[in-house]
Amino acid sequence: MANSSSPTRTALKNSSFLDAALGRKPARAPVWIMRQAGRYLADYRRVRSLFPSFMDFCRSPEHVAEVTIQPVDQVGVDAAILFSDILVLLPPLGLQLEFKESRGPVIANPLRTDEAIAALPGGNLNAELEYVFEGIRRSKKALDQRVPLIGFAGGPFTVASYMVEGGSSKELARLKALMFSKPQVFAQLMSKLSTVTAEYLCEQIRQGVDAVTLMDSWAGYLSPDDYRDQVMPHTRNIVATVKKNFPSVPFIHYANGGPTLLPHVVALGVDVVGLDWRMPLAEAIRAFPNQTFQGNLDPCWLYAPPERIAAKVKEMKAVVGSRPHVFNLGHGILPDISPDHARAFVDAVHAD
User: Fold this and answer.
1) What is the pLDDT of residue 287?
2) pLDDT tens by residue, 182-203
């Protein structure tokens, strides 16, 4: 079992991200990039090549720490995010997970019966995720308080989609069929996932992360009413549990493809709401002037010449004004983006 005591926290050399995330005015505008520890960096590809499978890579704390800090050293971001995956929760839940080239995650024994869902463990699974926590400890040591470390988990609806569909899906038809035809069984699955996810995020904080983010990648597949009625209560339980235990640790929520869900996401009570690029930043700020936002440059803007990236960031900064804001892309950085263009984005955010 991982050590459950909270680590001693010392002052960060760069606290701009934490300041903005907690609604304070930062010394300079902070920026990090979703999927910043990834294939666009040659050093990441070098480390990845050492492992026969993606999960073997995730289970190597030494190499997790190495790639976690690469974007801090090479791109200049104001926060590191732990290198891991939202699906690491699946094997402790008894699901056989494999990442296959060109197909992504594949679950050999997806949940296809009510009995399989009822049999899922719903308690503390942290002992089986010790490799994640060791990765946190090693990453914190390697960062040497230069910037904060962000931990994360997948939103329960997104994680449930893989568990029921057996992998990625264009329609989420099996999951939504369960949600609409057997709402009590769906709620049972979501309740178990929300309990496990809340415990997992709390343990990440105990092991040293300075902030957490909940990635609900497929939330945009839902109508606002269905999200409110069938997903939001479970997500709210995660947020409430983490904030009750760690009120001063920033909590970010990102829902991909979810502009229509924005009022419900704001109502979750998170510190920072991540926006994808489909939501006009000015419109979000007008609608919710007291909410701190994150984002939301279209990742494809990083294909543009650096001078155009800088001009676009300048437009974003004019919209944000003096309010606290965490600059980021509106989704993960694409694997063929030039690191020079990623640096151009970061440098433009930092420019006066």
Assistant:
1) 98
2) 999 999 999 999 999 999 999 9
Q: How many other CB atoms sit within 10 Å of the CB of residue 324?
A: 21
pLDDT mean over 107-130? 93
Whether residue 314 is contained in a domain is answered as: yes
As a whole number of angstroms, the distance between CA 229 and CA 38 comes to 35
Question: How many beta carbons lie within 10 A of that of residue 112, not counting itself?
Answer: 12
Catalytic residues: 35, 39, 48, 85, 162
Q: pLDDT tens digit string along 249-308?
A: 999 999 999 899 999 999 999 999 999 999 999 999 999 999 999 999 999 999 999 999
- What are 36's two structure tokens? 């910043």
Q: Residue 3: inside a domain, yes or no?
A: no
- Kindly state whether residue 9 falls inside one of the protein's structural domains: no
Q: Give just the sign of the alpha carbon dihedral 286, 287, 289, 294.
A: negative
Q: Quote the CA–CA distance of 131 and 62 in Å, as a whole number.
A: 10
CATH number at residue 108: 3.20.20.210
